[in-house]
């Protein structure tokens, strides 16, 4: 199955999850869809577990310690976080966050034969019953590794202080430098 087909299948699953949440009447949970682009450079992929935390401007957030087990949508045989790959995850979390999400923290457990990982970007879409859809693109462009600068197993991107006044829910929020490269 090609990546376009996998992403299409993932989007259908997200839609079905939103419908299921609406039918069930669970108004305290939203659907979070996370797209992660791994860098295409040599040794850019990893076998480590990758976690994510997301926050709104008030500091409320959601923490996922292992994206793959939380909501990996690429199939049971898929090898996540490989060089040049776009991986899709979707799961449920609290609806109490105020859009847009403006702070991201990525973590690696540093385990596995290839612990180093280069993340290009993370894009997050949230939606739920009686909640406007929100989309944020975080440009990370950093190694999470102990043997490559900045020699740490986490990366943070915080755009909360720079939020535009009168945020338009119909537009994707972009945080980080889209033109930067390694």
Automatic annotation (TrEMBL):
Residues 30-158 form the PLAT domain. Residues 1-25 form the signal peptide. Keywords: Signal. The keyword Lyase does not apply. It holds the Pfam family ATS3. Transmembrane segments: none annotated. PROSITE patterns: PLAT. InterPro entries: Embryo-specific_ATS3, PLAT/LH2_dom, PLAT/LH2_dom_sf. The keyword RNA-binding does not apply. This is PLAT domain-containing protein. It comes from Dioscorea zingiberensis. The lineage of its organism: Eukaryota, Viridiplantae, Streptophyta, Embryophyta, Tracheophyta.
